[in-house]
Amino acid sequence: MSINFDQKQLAAYFVCGTQDIPGQRLTTVLKRALAAGITAFQYRDKGASRLTASERLALGKQLHTLCEAAGVPFIVDDDVDLALALGADGIHVGQSDTGIQQVVTAVSQQMFIGLSCSTLAEVRVANQVAGLAYLGSGPIFPTSSKADADPVVGLANLQELVTASSRPIVAIGGITEDQLPALAQTGVAGAAVISMLAQSNDYQRTVTAMRTAGWLMQ
Ligand code: TZP
Ligand code: MG
Prior knowledge:
Strand content: 15-25%
CATH architecture: Alpha-Beta Barrel
Largest sheet: 8 strands, parallel, barrel
Order of helices and strands: EHEHEHEHEHEHEHEHH
Shape: globular
Mean pLDDT: 96
Bound molecules: 4-methyl-5-hydroxyethylthiazole phosphate, magnesium ion
Structural class: alpha/beta
Low-confidence stretches: none
Helix content: 25-40%
Distance between the termini: 25 Å
Oligomer: single chain
Strand order of the largest sheet: 1-2-3-4-5-6-7-8
CATH class: Alpha Beta
CATH topology: TIM Barrel
CATH superfamily: Aldolase class I
Radius of gyration: 16 Å
């Protein structure tokens, strides 16, 4: 059974691929993150160390099974074919990935869709696209986790994006625990993080901080 979208799932949104956790197994990392209470997981396999298609499928099955057992939505980054093959709960696409209308046509009956939007112009276009569940905006702060990241958005611009958007927004990029209260003040529905959790020395503390930051409509 696939899990329907609820904006509360954006509160503690963990994004991870094998490239983000050198020397560790992604299944082990995800188990720890789920046990700590993450509210969504996105499998994002990127960069030079990218797994082959069949490896992504095999690993994706394991990750999906773990999420399913925890009742947490399993979201695939970018790859429509992989998301469909895995029966994912959601897919997240960027502005430069497969055209958004094509994605909506291909998957909207089967899973929810998130779209990256880091400018007001992108948000206004997204408002006109039927079938989007949420937007992801960033990088809010400088990040070393994404080589081709857009320019830093910052909190003031983020607030404008939230005001302009007809969909809930999850913030991403360079987020640290001490910035969560200020981030929540912008009206976003949650934080999406790679390193803050993958490199945390205390998953429970980090995820609890994410879940209780005071997000919009929490
Ligand atoms: N998209 C915009 S910034 C980013 C992605 C995938 C990387 C976020 O990683 P981190 O470690 O939380 O800054
Ligand atoms: Mg992308």
